[in-house]
Amino acid sequence: MDKVQKRLQVFRPDLVHLKGLVEQKTSRGDTTVSLNLRLPSGQMAAQEASVTANAAVKAAFNDLLAQIGKHKDLLRNSHRWRRRGAGNSRVVTGVPFEETIAAIPLPTATSDDVRAYINANFARVERFIERELFFRESAADLEPESLSVEEVLDEVAARALDDRAVKPDRLGLEAWLYRLAIIVMNDFMSRPEEGETDINLQERRRQRNELASDEPRLQFHQPDEAITAESSIRDERASTPEQIAYTDEVVRLVHYALRHTGK
Fold first, then answer.
1. What is the pLDDT of residues 17-52, one digit of tens each?
2. What is the rounded CA–CA span in Å between residue 233 and residue 138?
3. Residue 69: which domain range?
4. By C-alpha distance, which of 29, 33, 34, 35 is closest to 51?
């Protein structure tokens, strides 16, 4: 019933009628379930039989759900139907079903809805931001530890709860918050490029939240040496190990080709 109710949210409740009938066949012992659904735009019926009542009910509702899906697809494209006798050059005009009187427009989310969703799904939004920051740091689009999850989360909540913000419908809150988080991260990343912030070279670098050993760090720094922001800035003039390996491989291939050219 919950799935059927979700599919029928676009219809007015007073114009939707669902009737069901369960019959026990004495000859074979099967249970027959019949469903009849009346909508403002049509009528659908489903009938299934099975040995158990639960299986029959499930099969009947699955059949009805499939019919509802096809019916809604037809309604969405009803304004594109061509009438009989219409010429090819005639433009067929119509009104989509979502704009008719039988449809219920989805309510726009309010600040209270946004606040309730963030409180209930705080962990999901936080995990999304963590994954996005990790991917950007792995792709070298963002400096490690330059942007924290808390900073992005606070800005997302502030922008989402702003009364001037254009909010989506209630069903699209999750995707809207994710898009808002991406916009916030893009804004944070664009600020250093515009020269709005300066980097303090003597500032102590924040401790990274990782469980790896300190052996790679101790190859270049003393145990009692303080790691500053200057130590974490990449030297653009130096090549990475991947670039060095690529250059060596190209040089070897060129030498090999030159040696075998005269043969």
1. 888 888 887 667 788 888 888 887 788 888 888 888
2. 16
3. 2-80
4. 29
